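Researcher: For the record, we're logging two predictions in this thread. I'll number them. Prediction 1 follows.
Model: Prediction 1, sequence and structure:
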Amino acid sequence: MRFVALTSLAAVVLALCATPVAAQAPVQTPDAAEQLPRRVWLGAVFDSRQLKIDDPTPPSLKISDVVAGGTAAQAGIRAGDVVLAINDTPVNQWTDIAPLLRLARTDQAGFVTVRRDDKPLRLAVTWVSTPLETVPGATVRYSSVQSPRGYALRTIIAAPNRPASDTRRLPAFLYVQGLGCATIDRPSMTGLPDVELPRELAAEGFVTLRVDKPGTGDSLGPPCDQITFAEELDDYRAAFDKLASLPEVDPSRVYIFGYSFGGVFAPFIAEGKDVAGIAVYGTHARTWLEYELENTRRQMTVLGESPATVSERLQHVGAFQSMLLLRKMTPAEIFAERPDLKFEAPLMDDTHQYGRHARFFHELQERNIAEAWQNLESLNVLALHGEYDWVSSPEDAELIARIATNGKGEGEMQSLPGLDHGMTRHNSLTESVTNFARGEWTSIVTNTLLNWTDRTYRPPARKPLPPEVKP
């Protein structure tokens, strides 16, 4: 039997990354750390509505929107066009575009070939630089952090505006993004966690820092889809240190926020660091193999599949993931040994799953995530779960909060009404499935974080004054 994968996580990665595509910066020496070149900007949004959990075909390159001021708009590309080639090199899915734009430079000439009215159309373009992000009520600084492996990674720092006379050190959040290899530097986008949450926190008095993974956005280094779990973890730990060292930041009030898979990294980032607290949204604390099986059952049930179909699919998923995760095989090796397990899915090839290399998952399976949380004693932890989030489970959020409490910290779990995995609000679970990540953006997550930090912050006790010495 030839199976079609139920890869909702891949669909989530795709849907949240279906944004204006930009080039990756070329690899340069670490000397360029504070002057990372700005990448070029296509300025086209690909239609995430075409993503279907049971669709075996690659995601379409049909453009749903063209952003004013981008390369696409200036070249006359329209919504409804389907991208066929960049600089005369064919593309099969939107993830093919960024590598082709790596060598493009602002103001250089190039070509984008699209299909319009069932005919190919080769359009001359002049590449436009990606705009810089602005945040009302805050100042945005584009900087970088040195990876422990010697290359520069783009950081985006947002700090609240305040008078020069206000020299207080401010609390801060390190924002850790999800699994995908897409840039978090998307200044023209709205309604996405990677952009909205850090902006709102900065406007509310927190310094926020985001860091792009190697090979994404302006960051240098190897392609993101080749790095391991340990490599990415080391980069986030370096970013935490940079945030804590900023002159406007209170180093005793630095928090970590982990979104989706970023919540898996969160306790490992905090290890040995002076962390004021960790908040996570839509994450898990079990082994990846358990997550794959539990997630498959939950999502198929949400989609109304019969119990028999669910069990049949779990047999397939269990066999494939066991070979991938426990025997440390690649998809190509698995399919060669077990042709009956062959399936196609977005962001999967001979060596990758969900757009990440198989060795990333090999290492992830060996990580004891629950133990990482357990090792963080006396820490404030907030585990959030959206009511209509069908990508993660409330049980994982409850587990994280319980571990934190058992560690003599203050762990709590909150379910946020109406929210899906993308933090957008819907009226029903069915609506969250059919309109994933395109519901109403609200500030409920930001407000919950602000309330939590206010409630749990304990200012350091003042040392008693020395007794008065009388002559």
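Researcher: Logged. Prediction 2.
Model: Prediction 2, sequence and structure:
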Amino acid sequence: MSSSDLAALRRVVTRGVLLVALILGVNVFVLSYYALMPQARHSYDAMYHKVDMLDTIPAPRIIVIGGSSVAFGQNSKVMEELCGIPVINLGTHAGIGLRFMMRQAREKFRTGDIVLLAPEYAQFSGTFDGWHPLLDHLIENPEAMQYIRSWGQLEAILEAVPLKFKDPLDKRLRNFVAPGDIPAQEQTGWTINRVDTISDAPGYHGDTWSRERVRRSHPLRDWDPITGAYIDQQAITHVQEFRDACAGMGVRVLIEYPPVPEKYYEQSRRWIDSLHALLTAALPGAVLRHPRESTYPEYMFLDTVYHLNAVGREVRSRQLAAALAQFVPASHPPISK
């Protein structure tokens, strides 16, 4: 083979390699773009809007902290009318972790505030520091790194990195093999309903309500596990430390259990009751109600075992207001309508 033929062959091979590299590069870029898109962006944006409310609404206030069961599960206007002081709903995505939620909100507390922690049960069975949505949140809000101060949070972030690339790749491969066969839940993100974040109307401080008010056309999705195999004693200790630190600021911290269907409570009753015993021992006088009082019929739930519909939301809001009324300062008597 002549030298000119070899040169031509090299050019062909080089171009072929460059073409393959270009195709791979484009796919890596597209995959990275989709991998780095937070799936619950509206939840993260809403959280910062809610926290900012604490700068403009004077104390005393009732501040409710938790995951999506709080975001979707209360009518702050009803609670405000019954308790007589502002109610602020800081509910967000549970995957951020209760440690992050408490640390972010704490700097905004004021003397006289009542803080109601109402996290999902999983926060006490291994997810207190969060899981892969914590990485989503940091991608969307890099300034939130100031609230990452534990090894557990760093581990959650590092464990999430490969998942950020694996999940969208799995979906693309499945769509290539069987187009149109991806479940609706995966196509539309972490909740399959359109939502309204009510941020302007007085009395609706931070509530997020689904447009699908009551009716449900599909079975409830079970966020497995609703509890865990063990109880995270360190999580309880951190909540205790948070309560003590807030007490030094003149802020009362109370604990409430998340709303779940009655049958899920019965299935996990031994674990939930054990958690209740530990919390009441570690935080005397802080546990608002027994976990059974936070169970509701299945028809009161919308799409998951943590998301109440309009009926359940109204019932729970009135129950919480009645339980909280005893802690409202005497200068702010409850308002009944």
